[in-house]
Design a protein that fits this description.
It contains seven helices and three strands, in the order H-H-H-H-H-H-E-E-E-H. It has a three-stranded antiparallel β-sheet with strand order 1-2-3.
Length: 163
């Protein structure tokens, strides 16, 4: 729990779930109102909120206070002002049961008897981008009243076929 989270995991596990709460999470991570004003997205849409969350997490990582760890984030999520107790419990369960030691830049999973399997953050970034594209396409479909299987810039939603 005291390990450092990677940005792709933060985006996947937190920002994708509560994108509209980037400001209050930022305040709880001791970012100043001035910092949050600079981070505030020009467009108050899903993509803007995801980008803002990424900037909040990056600013938190750079300042290092409070400690950049899953434990800190879980405490922030449980705070009365953020009120995401269920999400904090899901993160705690994921960290506890996955056996993952999450560090900036890579994820290491114990393979038993001292063997470690490392997945580079690049593949996680691809997964995060695909997830974000999927969410953005769904939002666009809701606004336009259509359904599509392709996503922005010609990418395809994982598990679906393009037309």
């Amino acid at each position: 729990m005291d390990s450092e989270p990677s940005l792709p995991r933060l985006m996947d596990k937190v920002a994708a779930v509560i994108p509209h709460k980037y400001e209050i999470v930022g305040l709880q991570l001791d970012l100043t109102l001035a910092e949050l004003q600079v981070i505030r997205p020009q467009h108050q849409d899903l993509e803007g909120h995801h980008r803002a969350f990424g900037k909040v997490f990056d600013a938190w990582r750079r300042c290092g206070s409070p400690p950049y760890s899953w434990r800190t984030l879980i405490g922030v999520l449980r705070s009365a002002s953020v009120g995401e107790v269920r999400l904090s419990e899901q993160l705690t369960s994921w960290i506890t049961h996955s056996g993952l030691s999450v560090k900036e830049g890579s994820i290491t999973k114990s393979g038993g008897q001292g063997n470690n399997v490392t997945m580079e953050s690049r593949s996680e970034e691809s997964d995060t981008v695909a997830s974000l594209q999927h969410l953005l396409q769904k939002q666009l479909d809701v606004k336009t009243g259509t359904q599509s299987s392709t996503v922005l810039k010609g990418a395809t939603i994982p598990g679906e076929r393009s037309t």
